[in-house]
User: Fold this.
Amino acid sequence: MATGELTKRVDESELGYGEALTSSGRVSAAKMYEPEAPTSPFTTRQLARLDEALTFASRETGLDFSLYLGELGTDSRSAAEKLHSTTANPANSVLIAVSPGEKLIEIVTGKTAHVRLPDRGCKLAVASMVASFKEGDLVRGLVNGLANALRMLSDQAGPAPR
Assistant:
C-alpha cells in the first residue's frame, strides 16, 4: 500500500454478482463483454431476402450475380467496373452497384453475361429500382427494388445453358 492511500474495508456480503474479494483486499469484478452489434440499415430479414434473390438469380441463370452498396465516387462507371473485375469469374458475372448517397445505379456485365443480358434489360431493371426508391423508404426500396431487378434480370437472361 502506498503512503497516503486510503482503503475501505469491504465485507464479502456487500459484493455483487461477478465480484470477488482478492487476498490483497481488493475487489475484482467480472463483467460480461458484449460487443456492439454491427450497424446496418438492413434487418436480418431484409438481408436474407436480398441473399435469397441473389442466390436464386445466380442458380436460375448460371450467371454470378453480386451486389455492391456504397459510394462509387465521381467516376461511378469506372469504380463499378473495377469492383466487377474483382469477382471470381468476371466474364460470367453481373454486378449491381448502388450508391444511395450519390443517387447512382450501375450494372456491369461480363463478356459472357452481356450476351445473355443486353443493356436494354439492364435499363429496365434500373428503372424498376428507381421506381422503388421514389416511394421514399430507401431501405425498403433497395430490398424490393433489388429483388425485383434481380428477378427481371434472371428472366431476361433465361435459364443456364445445359
